[in-house]
Design goal:
By secondary structure, the protein is α+β, with helices and mostly antiparallel strands. The chain is built from 14 helices and ten strands.
């Protein structure tokens, strides 16, 4: 059930109050800022309904409310697309990007620093951000003993080869059967999509005694053939000190969770790729993702392009109560500026 205009206004007032202070928001404060001319008593009734429906949480019975993940999500979705930045802000951003700019084709490390500087959160840049090449066929060639050469042919004609170690020496018939199975299963899938499928097989096949023998053999091959080697994705993080200096990360436990999240760079890249399947700019809040859940974090991520194709992604990670209304348009403007720079190197754009 959608919120009424009154309920949404109250929710937005609570989110914005909580973003500003980090403290539970009381009904009197909401009545002052929501602009509906409602009494504190009426506001309390609306807040109680929002709490019952999972949009708000009350830490203590006598205290104000804080937004839940659902409340933040509803607030973010209500912002709508196309929030415009003031001209002064655009000019400052453009000057900073131009001053720090290096060769975009070769270097994206500086982008993380730009993002951190303009948002006062931790900045992150990732490339490549697509799902990798699309697989056309897989073949397996015996090399003797337990060693097998796996050959992956992509739809663009490229060929990747990797040595796979089997549990025991396979027969030629077994390898042909496994290769046919992997080809029919993975043909038309991206490398990232295949990795997600392999992870699903691993999750569902915990009891190998009950797993189909062919699937079990194929899984052993796919795990090695499509494993991430860390060299296929570039992830840069800057501005961690921006978060550690804030009150949201004053506790040792939250600091550990934050640092663990930022160190899991493959996990960040995988989560961004998954999220960006839905569209160019995405907001990830709290328990919506394993990456943000443990540290009670939020992320904003957007794409930049070259030649109409994804060149990379940039974004921020910060406390769940970060100012999404300010950060989303900032990120989109930086992404737009980078896209124009890649299309027309050396040209300034206002």
């Amino acid at each position: 059930m959608e919120l009424t205009k009154r309920e949404l206004a109250v929710l937005c007032g609570i989110v914005e109050g909580y973003v500003g202070t980090g403290e539970p928001v009381a009904s009197r404060e909401v009545a002052r800022v929501c602009g509906l001319g409602l009494s504190p008593a009426t506001i309390r009734n609306v807040m109680a309904k929002l709490e019952d429906r999972g949009f708000l949480d009350r830490l203590h019975s006598s205290a104000g409310c804080v937004p839940t993940d659902r409340g933040f999500r509803t607030y973010v979705d209500s912002m709508g697309p196309g929030r415009r930045l003031p001209g002064v802000t655009k000019n400052l951003l453009l000057e900073k990007i131009t001053a720090m700019r290096r060769e975009l084709v070769e270097d994206i490390e500086w982008l993380a620093r730009v993002v951190a500087d303009v948002t006062h959160e931790a900045g992150i840049t990732v490339r490549p951000i697509d799902d990798g090449p699309v697989v056309d066929a897989v073949s397996l060639v015996p090399l003797g003993g337990q060693r097998v050469l796996g050959v992956v042919v992509s739809a663009d004609g490229s060929v990747e080869k990797k040595v796979v170690i089997k549990v025991q020496e396979p027969t030629l018939e077994e390898l042909q059967e496994e290769g046919n199975f992997l080809s029919s299963t993975f043909s038309g899938m991206s490398v990232d999509g295949i990795r997600r499928q392999v992870s699903e097989w691993e999750r569902l096949g915990g009891d190998r005694d009950e797993m189909d023998p062919l699937l079990e053999r194929a899984l052993t091959v796919a795990q090695q053939l499509f494993e991430e080697d860390g060299g296929d994705v570039e992830v840069w993080v800057a501005g961690t000190d921006n978060l550690l200096d804030g009150s949201d990360f004053a506790e040792a436990g939250r600091i550990r969770s934050l640092l663990a999240t930022l160190q899991d760079r493959r996990g960040i890249a995988r989560e961004w790729r998954r999220a960006l399947e839905k569209g160019r700019t995405q907001v990830i809040i709290g328990r919506e993702s394993q990456v943000t859940a443990s540290g009670n974090l939020g992320m904003v991520v957007t794409l930049f392009y070259r030649g109409g194709r994804r060149a990379g992604a940039l974004g921020v990670v910060g406390p769940r109560r970060m100012d999404y209304g300010r950060i989303v348009p900032l990120m989109e403007y930086v992404g737009d500026t980078l896209t124009r720079m890649l299309e027309e190197p050396g040209v300034r754009h206002a």
